[in-house]
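Hey L., structure's done. Input below.
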Amino acid sequence: MTCPGESSQPLRPPPGPPLAGVGIRQGPTPQGPRQAPWVQLRTYSFAPTLYPAMIKGASPDAKPGDLVTVYDRDGRRFGTGLYNPRARVPLRVIQHGEAPFTEEDFLGLLDRAVALRLKTLRLAEVSDAFRVVHSDGDRLSGLVVDRYADVLSVSVHSLGVWQRLPRWLPHLHTRLGTRHAVVEVDDFVARLEGIPGSRPGQTPAAGGKTVPTVKIVESGVRFEVDFAAGHKTGFFCDQRENRRRFARWVNPETRVLDLCCYTGGFALAAAVTGRAVDVTGVDLDEQAVRQARRNANLNQARITRSTATPTATPGRCSATATCGTWWWWTRPNSWIAATTSAKANSSTKT
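Output:
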């Protein structure tokens, strides 16, 4: 069904002259000679991450990590991206459209990401730990940066990003007032991308001294972040609002059981901010439980800590902890309170 005056034929891009590329006859594009280095797409896609089957060819001078001009399948300028032919994601599009994009424009994207957190969301008023750059969400595909006090915890998933860290990190330090950086690259990602060193950790690109741990404050609660032993970038900053909301549900008569407590984020929010009468934290990871104990000491808070004993039921992950208390179980947009007698069980299908 079509509207009056609307064609029933599907829309197709207008035809263009022969295209340049791998195995394609060289020739001018609809906009004139191509700007090298360049990559040409086989299919139309506005996704920031493009895979090998979606790429038709590249100029001979396009090297791993290069900032390249992207052309669509008909030879029209489509955008700009970071290219790495050996990677699982060979093209990460940074900008769509015909406008030029240079190395200087990367600094503009970093500034925009920082301004969103500091000026719009005003996260620094709540905590000195928050995400600064969130990969594709900030048009910086392959880069994740979390701020922890005066340390930047950086997770890299792209060779092009890795190559530019010596310039980007000092720029972020200036904007955020940080001094040190911890750079982490997964072994598997490093091999695929061709990033030197399997786990570079603190590298010359990071700058500053080696920082094994750092102390942060979130809504008045203090935590120690261990970069070597912690999960992801060291701390789950994305749960900040959930911890604040949870604390509002707690009062001095509440008893709380925090299952899978990790380093005690929700447990300490209940104990310190909510002033719960009794808090128990349970986790399978003994190292995480020890970190939760240190975090409790930082806040002079009393939390009963327990290491869960896993069961061996195939296809299920279970933990059992002995405690006679109230426990809270969270689901999306809901809070459920229940009572336990002698045991609290968490069971989730895997």
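Residues 1-27, 198-205, 311-350 have pLDDT under 50 and may be disordered. The first strand starts at residue 38 and ends at 41.

-- N.
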